[in-house]
Write a structure and sequence with these properties.
Order of helices and strands: EHEHHEHHEHEH
Shape: globular
Number of helices: 7
Low-confidence stretches: none
InterPro entries: NadR/Ttd14_AAA_dom, P-loop_NTPase
Number of domains: 1
Protein name: ATPase
Mean pLDDT: 91
Strand order of the largest sheet: 2-3-1-4-5
Oligomer: single chain
Strand content: 5-15%
Structural class: alpha/beta
Radius of gyration: 16 Å
Number of strands: 5
CATH topology: Rossmann fold
Largest sheet: 5 strands, parallel
């Protein structure tokens, strides 16, 4: 089973790409952080990222979703972010990585959970704030750089997907995947 990560700054188009991949019949595993934020905000916690346990909650949900995806027989899976993105988030928020995060990163490396080729979705030149995404474009660029540094420091190869139409970005990703699968 091949598990590929899509990462990048908030608002880069990752979710739209993942939805198109799903529409084309691929197995997709949704991002955890946005769901954690939305759930907390519905519970009255307007800024859940300032509370202890925020990162751990994301890590638990990511692991739960990754393990649940094992039940499928799909030869190829796409992940909207990974625990390495959670490491980037932790660094961006100024937190030291919690033990749950460090253990999960160790597990995914030990068990070779994800392919070492990561699709790095480059920013679109703007970042549209949402209820869960309260970040300026300048902040998004800093966050993008932190993501890049985290992945590279852990030995992942970034396959950059430049801004373009949704369909051209999806086509580039699926072509790369065919090329990568042919090499393995």
């Amino acid at each position: 089973m091949k598990r590929y990560i899509l990462t990048g700054t908030p608002g880069s188009g990752k979710t739209s790409i993942l939805h198109e991949l799903r529409r084309q019949g691929y197995r997709v595993v949704e991002e955890a952080a946005s769901d954690v934020i939305a759930l907390e905000q519905r519970s009255g916690n307007a800024e859940p990222w300032v509370y202890p346990g925020f990162i751990e909650t994301i890590v638990r949900l990511q692991k739960q979703r990754q393990l649940a995806a094992l039940g499928g027989h799909d030869a190829l899976q796409w992940y909207d972010r990974s625990p390495i993105c959670t490491l980037a988030l932790s660094r961006d928020l100024g937190y030291s990585p919690c033990s749950a995060l460090l253990e999960e990163i160790e597990r995914i490396e030990r068990e070779n959970i994800y392919q070492l080729q990561v699709f790095f979705i480059e920013n679109l030149g703007f970042c549209q704030p949402t209820e869960a995404r309260k970040i300026t474009f300048a902040e998004a660029l800093v966050f993008e750089k932190i993501h890049e540094e985290c992945y590279i420091s852990l030995g992942y190869d970034l396959i950059r997907i430049a801004p373009d139409s949704l369909m051209k970005r999806v086509q580039r990703i699926t072509e790369w995947t065919r090329d990568l699968r042919g090499k393995s």
